[in-house]
Amino acid sequence: MLELAILGFLYDAPLHGYELRKRITALTGHVRPVAESTLYPTIKRLEKSGLLVRTTEPGAVAAPRHVLSLTNEGGNALRRQLAEPAQRDITDENRWFTVLAFLRHLDDATAQAAVLRRRLAFLEEPASFFYEGDRPLRAEELEDPFRRGVLTIARATSRAELTWLRDTLASLGG
Hints:
Strand content: 5-15%
Order of helices and strands: HEHHEEHHHHEEH
CATH class of the largest domain: Mainly Alpha
Largest sheet: 3 strands, antiparallel
Distance between the termini: 26 Å
Helix content: 55-70%
Shape: elongated
Radius of gyration: 20 Å
Oligomer: single chain
Mean pLDDT: 90
CATH architecture of the largest domain: Orthogonal Bundle
CATH superfamily of the largest domain: Winged helix-like DNA-binding domain superfamily/Winged helix DNA-binding domain
Strand order of the largest sheet: 1-3-2
């Protein structure tokens, strides 16, 4: 997801590494902190692949800044990742939010709708965090108030997302 976030933010505008890290942290840092030891090697790998270019600009008061920009191939790579996200990018909520944050960069409404339909199908599957044998338990069946809370909150979140997905799919004609 780090690669997707880098490509997505640079699709919006060229950024220097510090600003890019702040934006990625704002999007995903509460769940997955972005360490410099992870970010900068990923940036270098994307540069070597021809997806990013680095230019140097004079610093306002300090050393020169390296500004990262997306290449045409980088934009194409971003759109490919958005059009065909891995299944775990659909099912993992945090990965899903990263896909969703940049899905607007996929200019084709039909392709956007296809991604949203995959998430919708996942959310419509019966599921629980807690089971009795193979049977998923509902919040009402749990005596533990904390586990009941987990399921109650998850159900409310899922209902809100299902409503949003259906409304957005209708607006996309999908």
